[in-house]
Amino acid sequence: MDALSQDYTPISSILKGGQAGKKVKVRGWVYRSRTSGGVCFVVVRDSTGVIQCAVKKDAVGEKSFREASEAYIESTILVEGFVREDKRAPGGFELAASQVQLVAQGEPFPIAKDQSVEFLLDSRHLWLRSQRLTTIMKGRHHILRYLRQFFEKEGFWELTPPIITQAGCEGGSTLFEFDYFGQKAYLTQSSQLYAEVFTTSLEKVYVLAPSFRAEPSRTVRHLCEYWHLEPEMAFYNQKMNMELQERMVEYVAQKMAAEQQDILAALGRDIGKLKAVRAPFKRITYDEAIEICRQAGANIRHGQDIGADEEEILTRSEEKPLFVTNFPKKIKAFYMREDPQKPGTVLNDDLLAPEGHGEIIGGSERIWELDELMQRLKENKLDVRNYQWYIDLRRYGPFPHSGFGLGIERLVKWLLGLDHIRDAIPFPRTINRVYP
Ligand code: ATP
Ligand code: MN
Protein backbone atom coordinates (compact mmCIF):
# COMPACT_ATOMS: atom_id res chain seq x y z
CA MET A 1 0.00 0.00 0.00
CA ASP A 2 1.12 3.51 -0.75
CA ALA A 3 0.67 6.14 1.97
CA LEU A 4 0.53 8.92 -0.64
CA SER A 5 -2.19 7.38 -2.77
CA GLN A 6 -5.57 9.14 -2.91
CA ASP A 7 -7.77 6.06 -2.67
CA TYR A 8 -8.22 5.96 1.12
CA THR A 9 -11.72 6.11 2.53
CA PRO A 10 -12.42 8.69 5.24
CA ILE A 11 -13.40 6.79 8.40
CA SER A 12 -16.50 8.92 8.95
CA SER A 13 -17.92 7.85 5.60
CA ILE A 14 -17.60 4.17 6.63
CA LEU A 15 -19.38 4.91 9.91
CA LYS A 16 -22.25 6.55 8.05
CA GLY A 17 -23.18 3.07 6.79
CA GLY A 18 -24.02 1.69 3.39
CA GLN A 19 -20.58 0.20 2.76
CA ALA A 20 -20.94 -3.17 4.51
CA GLY A 21 -19.15 -5.93 2.59
CA LYS A 22 -17.07 -3.44 0.60
CA LYS A 23 -13.29 -3.59 0.55
CA VAL A 24 -11.77 -0.26 1.63
CA LYS A 25 -8.46 1.19 2.74
CA VAL A 26 -8.05 3.51 5.71
CA ARG A 27 -5.02 5.57 6.63
CA GLY A 28 -4.26 7.14 9.96
CA TRP A 29 -2.79 6.64 13.42
CA VAL A 30 -3.23 3.97 16.04
CA TYR A 31 -5.69 5.17 18.64
CA ARG A 32 -5.37 2.05 20.77
CA SER A 33 -4.67 -1.62 20.23
CA ARG A 34 -4.78 -4.97 21.99
CA THR A 35 -3.58 -8.38 20.92
CA SER A 36 -4.87 -11.67 22.20
CA GLY A 37 -3.81 -14.92 20.62
CA GLY A 38 -4.05 -14.74 16.88
CA VAL A 39 -6.17 -11.55 16.77
CA CYS A 40 -5.07 -7.97 17.10
CA PHE A 41 -7.66 -5.24 17.48
CA VAL A 42 -6.32 -1.92 16.22
CA VAL A 43 -8.45 1.17 16.55
CA VAL A 44 -7.37 3.60 13.82
CA ARG A 45 -8.12 7.31 13.77
CA ASP A 46 -7.98 9.78 10.92
CA SER A 47 -9.13 13.39 10.85
CA THR A 48 -12.74 12.28 10.51
CA GLY A 49 -13.21 9.57 13.15
CA VAL A 50 -12.04 6.25 14.63
CA ILE A 51 -12.75 2.69 13.55
CA GLN A 52 -11.81 -0.67 14.99
CA CYS A 53 -9.89 -3.05 12.71
CA ALA A 54 -9.85 -6.76 13.50
CA VAL A 55 -6.51 -8.13 12.31
CA LYS A 56 -6.50 -11.93 12.24
CA LYS A 57 -3.20 -13.67 11.68
CA ASP A 58 -4.87 -16.29 9.48
CA ALA A 59 -6.45 -13.65 7.26
CA VAL A 60 -3.58 -11.18 6.86
CA GLY A 61 -0.44 -13.33 7.04
CA GLU A 62 2.72 -13.11 9.18
CA LYS A 63 4.05 -9.74 8.02
CA SER A 64 0.82 -7.76 8.32
CA PHE A 65 0.08 -9.33 11.69
CA ARG A 66 3.52 -8.48 13.04
CA GLU A 67 3.23 -4.84 11.93
CA ALA A 68 -0.22 -4.55 13.51
CA SER A 69 0.85 -6.02 16.83
CA GLU A 70 4.10 -4.03 16.97
CA ALA A 71 2.34 -0.71 16.46
CA TYR A 72 2.55 1.82 19.29
CA ILE A 73 -0.22 4.22 20.15
CA GLU A 74 0.09 6.93 17.46
CA SER A 75 2.13 4.80 15.03
CA THR A 76 1.14 5.70 11.47
CA ILE A 77 -0.73 2.85 9.84
CA LEU A 78 -2.50 1.72 6.65
CA VAL A 79 -5.23 -0.91 6.79
CA GLU A 80 -7.09 -2.61 3.98
CA GLY A 81 -10.16 -4.63 4.86
CA PHE A 82 -13.82 -5.46 4.49
CA VAL A 83 -16.45 -3.31 6.16
CA ARG A 84 -18.54 -5.26 8.64
CA GLU A 85 -21.52 -4.07 10.60
CA ASP A 86 -20.96 -4.92 14.26
CA LYS A 87 -23.11 -3.57 17.05
CA ARG A 88 -20.36 -4.16 19.63
CA ALA A 89 -17.73 -2.11 17.77
CA PRO A 90 -17.49 1.60 18.62
CA GLY A 91 -19.41 3.43 15.88
CA GLY A 92 -21.25 0.25 14.85
CA PHE A 93 -18.80 -0.84 12.15
CA GLU A 94 -15.42 -2.50 11.99
CA LEU A 95 -12.93 -3.54 9.36
CA ALA A 96 -11.99 -7.16 8.91
CA ALA A 97 -8.41 -6.52 7.84
CA SER A 98 -6.92 -8.15 4.76
CA GLN A 99 -3.65 -6.23 4.87
CA VAL A 100 -1.85 -3.99 7.39
CA GLN A 101 1.21 -1.83 6.93
CA LEU A 102 3.03 0.55 9.24
CA VAL A 103 4.07 3.77 7.53
CA ALA A 104 6.22 4.45 10.56
CA GLN A 105 6.34 2.84 13.97
CA GLY A 106 7.84 5.91 15.66
CA GLU A 107 8.54 5.86 19.38
CA PRO A 108 6.22 4.99 22.27
CA PHE A 109 3.74 7.83 22.77
CA PRO A 110 4.49 9.74 25.99
CA ILE A 111 0.88 10.50 26.92
CA ALA A 112 -0.94 7.77 28.79
CA LYS A 113 -4.16 7.90 30.81
CA ASP A 114 -4.64 10.13 33.87
CA GLN A 115 -1.97 12.68 33.19
CA SER A 116 -1.90 16.01 35.05
CA VAL A 117 -3.28 19.16 33.46
CA GLU A 118 0.21 20.70 33.50
CA PHE A 119 1.75 17.71 31.74
CA LEU A 120 -0.93 17.81 29.07
CA LEU A 121 -0.33 21.53 28.56
CA ASP A 122 3.42 20.91 28.25
CA SER A 123 2.54 18.26 25.67
CA ARG A 124 -0.06 20.38 23.91
CA HIS A 125 1.54 19.74 20.49
CA LEU A 126 0.85 16.02 21.00
CA TRP A 127 -2.36 16.35 23.02
CA LEU A 128 -4.03 18.27 20.16
CA ARG A 129 -4.46 14.81 18.58
CA SER A 130 -6.84 13.75 21.34
CA GLN A 131 -10.45 13.13 20.37
CA ARG A 132 -11.67 15.87 22.68
CA LEU A 133 -9.38 18.61 21.41
CA THR A 134 -9.87 17.50 17.81
CA THR A 135 -13.63 17.82 18.28
CA ILE A 136 -13.28 21.24 19.93
CA MET A 137 -11.07 22.50 17.09
CA LYS A 138 -13.68 21.35 14.59
CA GLY A 139 -16.32 23.21 16.59
CA ARG A 140 -14.16 26.33 16.61
CA HIS A 141 -13.74 26.05 12.84
CA HIS A 142 -17.49 25.95 12.31
CA ILE A 143 -18.12 28.83 14.71
CA LEU A 144 -15.63 31.01 12.81
CA ARG A 145 -17.15 29.91 9.51
CA TYR A 146 -20.69 30.80 10.62
CA LEU A 147 -19.53 34.17 11.90
CA ARG A 148 -17.96 34.99 8.54
CA GLN A 149 -21.08 33.69 6.78
CA PHE A 150 -23.23 35.98 8.91
CA PHE A 151 -21.19 39.08 8.11
CA GLU A 152 -21.12 38.20 4.44
CA LYS A 153 -24.92 38.06 4.47
CA GLU A 154 -25.07 41.40 6.25
CA GLY A 155 -22.88 43.07 3.62
CA PHE A 156 -19.72 43.61 5.69
CA TRP A 157 -16.13 43.90 4.45
CA GLU A 158 -13.35 42.01 6.22
CA LEU A 159 -10.16 44.00 6.77
CA THR A 160 -6.89 43.28 8.51
CA PRO A 161 -5.38 45.71 11.00
CA PRO A 162 -1.81 46.20 12.21
CA ILE A 163 -0.82 44.14 15.24
CA ILE A 164 2.01 46.46 16.26
CA THR A 165 0.63 49.80 17.44
CA GLN A 166 1.28 52.81 19.62
CA ALA A 167 -2.33 53.30 20.65
CA GLY A 168 -3.37 51.49 23.81
CA CYS A 169 -7.11 51.54 24.04
CA GLU A 170 -8.16 49.31 26.93
CA GLY A 171 -5.99 50.67 29.74
CA GLY A 172 -2.25 50.67 30.30
CA SER A 173 -2.06 47.88 32.84
CA THR A 174 -2.54 45.03 30.37
CA LEU A 175 -0.33 46.36 27.53
CA PHE A 176 2.52 44.26 26.20
CA GLU A 177 5.13 46.92 25.56
CA PHE A 178 8.31 46.52 23.56
CA ASP A 179 11.11 48.47 21.98
CA TYR A 180 10.41 49.31 18.34
CA PHE A 181 13.77 50.59 17.06
CA GLY A 182 14.02 53.04 19.92
CA GLN A 183 10.31 53.90 20.11
CA LYS A 184 7.75 52.47 22.51
CA ALA A 185 5.24 50.17 20.83
CA TYR A 186 2.66 47.64 21.92
CA LEU A 187 1.02 44.44 20.77
CA THR A 188 -2.51 45.53 20.01
CA GLN A 189 -5.15 45.18 22.76
CA SER A 190 -7.95 45.70 20.26
CA SER A 191 -8.24 46.59 16.59
CA GLN A 192 -11.25 48.80 17.16
CA LEU A 193 -9.58 52.12 16.50
CA TYR A 194 -8.37 50.87 13.12
CA ALA A 195 -11.76 49.31 12.39
CA GLU A 196 -13.19 52.80 12.90
CA VAL A 197 -10.83 54.06 10.19
CA PHE A 198 -12.07 51.37 7.82
CA THR A 199 -15.69 52.54 8.28
CA THR A 200 -14.78 55.86 6.65
CA SER A 201 -14.28 54.06 3.34
CA LEU A 202 -16.23 50.80 3.57
CA GLU A 203 -18.97 51.68 6.10
CA LYS A 204 -19.63 48.18 7.46
CA VAL A 205 -16.47 46.28 8.29
CA TYR A 206 -15.10 43.65 10.61
CA VAL A 207 -11.69 42.63 11.76
CA LEU A 208 -10.80 39.13 12.95
CA ALA A 209 -7.36 39.25 14.52
CA PRO A 210 -5.53 38.44 17.72
CA SER A 211 -5.63 40.86 20.62
CA PHE A 212 -3.07 40.80 23.39
CA ARG A 213 -3.63 41.50 27.07
CA ALA A 214 -1.06 41.05 29.79
CA GLU A 215 -3.69 39.60 32.13
CA PRO A 216 -2.14 39.42 35.58
CA SER A 217 -4.58 36.93 37.07
CA ARG A 218 -5.49 33.33 36.42
CA THR A 219 -9.12 32.91 35.52
CA VAL A 220 -11.04 30.42 33.40
CA ARG A 221 -11.86 33.13 30.86
CA HIS A 222 -8.77 35.25 30.30
CA LEU A 223 -5.98 34.54 27.85
CA CYS A 224 -2.99 36.77 27.10
CA GLU A 225 -3.50 36.22 23.37
CA TYR A 226 -7.02 35.76 22.07
CA TRP A 227 -8.89 36.06 18.79
CA HIS A 228 -11.06 39.09 18.61
CA LEU A 229 -13.88 39.74 16.15
CA GLU A 230 -14.49 43.46 15.90
CA PRO A 231 -17.30 44.74 13.68
CA GLU A 232 -17.66 48.49 13.25
CA MET A 233 -20.57 50.13 11.48
CA ALA A 234 -21.07 53.60 10.03
CA PHE A 235 -24.49 55.16 10.65
CA TYR A 236 -25.41 52.70 13.42
CA ASN A 237 -26.57 53.81 16.83
CA GLN A 238 -26.30 51.69 19.96
CA LYS A 239 -29.74 50.19 19.50
CA MET A 240 -28.89 49.01 15.98
CA ASN A 241 -25.55 47.77 17.30
CA MET A 242 -27.20 45.58 19.94
CA GLU A 243 -29.68 44.21 17.44
CA LEU A 244 -26.81 43.21 15.19
CA GLN A 245 -25.12 41.39 18.10
CA GLU A 246 -28.35 39.57 18.82
CA ARG A 247 -28.78 38.48 15.25
CA MET A 248 -25.16 37.31 15.08
CA VAL A 249 -25.25 35.27 18.29
CA GLU A 250 -28.60 33.75 17.36
CA TYR A 251 -27.31 32.86 13.88
CA VAL A 252 -24.23 31.03 15.15
CA ALA A 253 -26.06 29.22 17.98
CA GLN A 254 -28.84 28.08 15.64
CA LYS A 255 -26.39 26.94 12.94
CA MET A 256 -24.41 24.94 15.49
CA ALA A 257 -27.59 23.34 16.87
CA ALA A 258 -28.89 22.49 13.40
CA GLU A 259 -25.74 21.40 11.60
CA GLN A 260 -23.14 20.32 14.18
CA GLN A 261 -25.01 17.91 16.37
CA ASP A 262 -22.25 15.29 16.22
CA ILE A 263 -19.69 17.71 17.60
CA LEU A 264 -22.02 18.94 20.34
CA ALA A 265 -23.01 15.41 21.30
CA ALA A 266 -19.37 14.25 21.43
CA LEU A 267 -18.66 17.06 23.88
CA GLY A 268 -21.74 16.29 25.96
CA ARG A 269 -23.26 19.66 25.11
CA ASP A 270 -27.01 19.95 25.55
CA ILE A 271 -28.29 21.01 22.10
CA GLY A 272 -31.52 22.32 23.63
CA LYS A 273 -29.48 25.04 25.37
CA LEU A 274 -28.35 26.35 21.98
CA LYS A 275 -31.78 26.04 20.40
CA ALA A 276 -33.10 28.37 23.12
CA VAL A 277 -30.78 31.16 21.95
CA ARG A 278 -33.30 33.24 20.01
CA ALA A 279 -33.49 37.02 19.72
CA PRO A 280 -34.50 39.25 21.41
CA PHE A 281 -32.28 39.03 24.49
CA LYS A 282 -33.18 40.69 27.77
CA ARG A 283 -31.71 44.15 28.46
CA ILE A 284 -30.99 45.53 31.91
CA THR A 285 -29.03 48.61 32.90
CA TYR A 286 -25.90 48.62 35.00
CA ASP A 287 -27.91 50.19 37.86
CA GLU A 288 -30.40 47.34 37.73
CA ALA A 289 -27.60 44.79 37.54
CA ILE A 290 -25.96 46.19 40.68
CA GLU A 291 -29.31 46.12 42.47
CA ILE A 292 -29.89 42.45 41.53
CA CYS A 293 -26.38 41.50 42.66
CA ARG A 294 -26.71 43.31 45.99
CA GLN A 295 -30.05 41.67 46.67
CA ALA A 296 -28.44 38.31 45.98
CA GLY A 297 -25.90 39.14 48.65
CA ALA A 298 -22.95 40.18 46.47
CA ASN A 299 -20.53 42.63 48.00
CA ILE A 300 -20.45 45.10 45.10
CA ARG A 301 -20.88 48.85 45.28
CA HIS A 302 -22.30 51.15 42.64
CA GLY A 303 -19.41 52.40 40.52
CA GLN A 304 -17.45 49.14 40.56
CA ASP A 305 -17.03 47.01 37.48
CA ILE A 306 -19.13 43.87 37.17
CA GLY A 307 -16.86 40.87 37.60
CA ALA A 308 -17.12 37.12 37.11
CA ASP A 309 -18.99 36.50 40.38
CA GLU A 310 -21.62 39.11 39.60
CA GLU A 311 -21.98 37.86 36.02
CA GLU A 312 -22.64 34.42 37.46
CA ILE A 313 -25.42 35.81 39.68
CA LEU A 314 -26.94 37.71 36.76
CA THR A 315 -26.96 34.82 34.29
CA ARG A 316 -27.35 31.65 36.34
CA SER A 317 -31.10 31.44 35.84
CA GLU A 318 -31.08 32.87 32.30
CA GLU A 319 -31.64 30.69 29.26
CA LYS A 320 -30.41 33.31 26.84
CA PRO A 321 -27.61 35.85 26.79
CA LEU A 322 -28.27 39.04 28.72
CA PHE A 323 -27.38 42.64 27.81
CA VAL A 324 -26.15 44.99 30.52
CA THR A 325 -26.19 48.61 29.34
CA ASN A 326 -25.38 52.13 30.53
CA PHE A 327 -22.26 51.58 32.59
CA PRO A 328 -20.86 54.57 34.47
CA LYS A 329 -18.68 56.62 32.14
CA LYS A 330 -15.86 56.52 34.71
CA ILE A 331 -15.25 52.80 34.48
CA LYS A 332 -15.48 52.47 30.71
CA ALA A 333 -13.11 53.25 27.84
CA PHE A 334 -12.57 56.81 26.60
CA TYR A 335 -14.17 56.26 23.18
CA MET A 336 -17.68 55.34 24.39
CA ARG A 337 -20.30 58.01 23.80
CA GLU A 338 -22.13 59.45 26.80
CA ASP A 339 -25.85 58.75 26.82
CA PRO A 340 -27.63 62.11 26.38
CA GLN A 341 -30.70 60.59 28.11
CA LYS A 342 -28.69 59.31 31.10
CA PRO A 343 -25.73 61.61 31.67
CA GLY A 344 -22.86 60.03 33.57
CA THR A 345 -23.47 56.72 31.77
CA VAL A 346 -22.34 55.59 28.33
CA LEU A 347 -24.17 54.06 25.37
CA ASN A 348 -22.64 50.64 25.79
CA ASP A 349 -23.44 46.99 26.32
CA ASP A 350 -21.78 43.97 27.79
CA LEU A 351 -23.38 40.79 26.49
CA LEU A 352 -23.26 38.03 29.11
CA ALA A 353 -23.59 34.39 28.09
CA PRO A 354 -25.86 32.21 30.25
CA GLU A 355 -24.94 29.29 32.54
CA GLY A 356 -22.31 31.38 34.28
CA HIS A 357 -20.08 31.79 31.20
CA GLY A 358 -20.26 35.56 31.48
CA GLU A 359 -19.11 38.36 29.19
CA ILE A 360 -18.58 37.48 25.55
CA ILE A 361 -19.06 40.90 23.93
CA GLY A 362 -18.35 44.52 24.80
CA GLY A 363 -19.92 47.09 22.50
CA SER A 364 -20.73 50.78 22.31
CA GLU A 365 -21.70 53.76 20.26
CA ARG A 366 -18.48 55.66 19.60
CA ILE A 367 -17.87 59.33 20.30
CA TRP A 368 -17.94 61.00 16.92
CA GLU A 369 -17.79 64.69 17.81
CA LEU A 370 -14.40 66.33 18.18
CA ASP A 371 -15.04 68.30 21.39
CA GLU A 372 -16.47 65.34 23.26
CA LEU A 373 -13.53 63.16 22.25
CA MET A 374 -10.92 65.74 23.26
CA GLN A 375 -12.65 66.15 26.61
CA ARG A 376 -12.71 62.41 27.29
CA LEU A 377 -9.08 61.88 26.27
CA LYS A 378 -8.22 64.59 28.80
CA GLU A 379 -10.37 63.07 31.54
CA ASN A 380 -8.66 59.74 30.94
CA LYS A 381 -5.21 61.40 31.05
CA LEU A 382 -4.27 59.97 27.67
CA ASP A 383 -1.48 61.53 25.61
CA VAL A 384 -3.26 63.06 22.60
CA ARG A 385 -0.08 62.83 20.52
CA ASN A 386 -0.60 59.06 20.26
CA TYR A 387 -4.17 59.50 19.06
CA GLN A 388 -3.82 62.25 16.42
CA TRP A 389 -4.89 59.97 13.61
CA TYR A 390 -7.89 58.76 15.59
CA ILE A 391 -8.86 62.35 16.42
CA ASP A 392 -8.62 63.21 12.71
CA LEU A 393 -11.61 60.96 12.05
CA ARG A 394 -13.66 63.51 14.05
CA ARG A 395 -12.30 66.38 11.95
CA TYR A 396 -12.86 65.11 8.43
CA GLY A 397 -16.32 63.82 7.59
CA PRO A 398 -17.37 62.58 11.03
CA PHE A 399 -20.53 60.49 11.38
CA PRO A 400 -22.34 58.47 14.07
CA HIS A 401 -21.02 54.93 14.32
CA SER A 402 -20.96 51.94 16.64
CA GLY A 403 -19.21 48.64 17.03
CA PHE A 404 -18.34 45.78 19.31
CA GLY A 405 -15.69 43.25 20.22
CA LEU A 406 -16.43 39.54 20.55
CA GLY A 407 -13.93 37.20 22.18
CA ILE A 408 -13.82 34.12 19.94
CA GLU A 409 -12.60 31.79 22.69
CA ARG A 410 -15.28 33.07 25.08
CA LEU A 411 -17.92 32.27 22.45
CA VAL A 412 -16.40 28.83 21.77
CA LYS A 413 -16.24 28.09 25.50
CA TRP A 414 -19.91 28.87 25.94
CA LEU A 415 -21.32 27.30 22.78
CA LEU A 416 -19.35 24.08 23.25
CA GLY A 417 -19.89 24.07 27.02
CA LEU A 418 -16.21 24.05 28.05
CA ASP A 419 -15.06 24.59 31.64
CA HIS A 420 -11.94 26.54 30.76
CA ILE A 421 -11.00 29.00 28.02
CA ARG A 422 -7.61 27.36 27.43
CA ASP A 423 -9.29 24.48 25.59
CA ALA A 424 -10.97 26.85 23.16
CA ILE A 425 -7.63 27.73 21.50
CA PRO A 426 -4.92 25.36 20.24
CA PHE A 427 -1.97 26.91 22.07
CA PRO A 428 -3.17 28.92 25.07
CA ARG A 429 -1.04 31.83 26.23
CA THR A 430 -1.48 32.61 29.91
CA ILE A 431 0.46 34.32 32.66
CA ASN A 432 2.66 31.28 33.24
CA ARG A 433 2.66 29.61 29.85
CA VAL A 434 4.12 30.44 26.43
CA TYR A 435 5.35 26.91 25.65
CA PRO A 436 4.83 25.03 23.37
P1 ATP B 1 -13.33 41.26 31.06
O1 ATP B 1 -14.09 42.22 31.93
O2 ATP B 1 -13.93 39.91 31.01
O3 ATP B 1 -11.85 41.26 31.35
P2 ATP B 1 -13.05 43.31 29.09
O4 ATP B 1 -14.05 44.28 29.56
O5 ATP B 1 -11.63 43.54 29.41
O6 ATP B 1 -13.47 41.83 29.56
P3 ATP B 1 -13.22 44.20 26.35
O7 ATP B 1 -12.04 45.06 26.50
O8 ATP B 1 -14.56 44.82 26.25
O9 ATP B 1 -13.24 43.10 27.53
O10 ATP B 1 -12.97 43.22 25.12
C1 ATP B 1 -14.03 42.75 24.27
C2 ATP B 1 -14.19 41.24 24.38
O11 ATP B 1 -12.94 40.57 24.24
C3 ATP B 1 -14.71 40.76 25.72
O12 ATP B 1 -16.11 40.85 25.78
C4 ATP B 1 -14.26 39.32 25.74
O13 ATP B 1 -15.12 38.51 24.98
C5 ATP B 1 -12.94 39.38 25.00
N1 ATP B 1 -11.80 39.40 25.94
C6 ATP B 1 -11.33 40.46 26.63
N2 ATP B 1 -10.24 40.14 27.33
C7 ATP B 1 -9.99 38.82 27.06
C8 ATP B 1 -8.98 37.91 27.47
N3 ATP B 1 -7.99 38.27 28.28
N4 ATP B 1 -9.04 36.63 26.99
C9 ATP B 1 -10.03 36.26 26.16
N5 ATP B 1 -11.00 37.08 25.73
C10 ATP B 1 -11.00 38.35 26.18
MN1 MN C 1 -10.42 42.75 30.92
Please provide a written account of the structure.
The chain contains 15 helices and 16 strands. The mean pLDDT is 97. It has helices spanning 11-15, 57-60, 62-70, 117-122, 124-127, 131-153, 192-202, 238-259, 261-266, 271-275, 286-295, 308-315, 370-379, 388-392, 408-416, and strands at residues 23-36, 39-46, 49-56, 76-85, 93-104, 157-159, 164-165, 176-180, 183-187, 204-212, 225-234, 282-285, 322-325, 348-353, 358-365, 401-407. An eight-stranded mixed β-sheet has the order 6-10-11-16-15-14-13-12. A five-stranded mixed β-barrel has the order 1-2-3-5-4. It has two domains: 11-104, Nucleic acid-binding proteins (OB fold (Dihydrolipoamide Acetyltransferase, E2P)); 122-424, Bira Bifunctional Protein, Domain 2 (BirA Bifunctional Protein, domain 2, 2-Layer Sandwich), CATH 3.30.930. Helix 6 (131-153) crosses helix 8 (238-259) and helix 6 packs across helix 15 (408-416). Strand 1 and strand 2 (39-46) form a beta hairpin. With 436 residues, it is of the alpha+beta class. The structure holds adenosine-5'-triphosphate (ATP) and manganese (II) ion. Adenosine-5'-triphosphate is lined by residues 170, 213, 215, 222-223, 226, 228, 359-362, 405-407, 409-410.
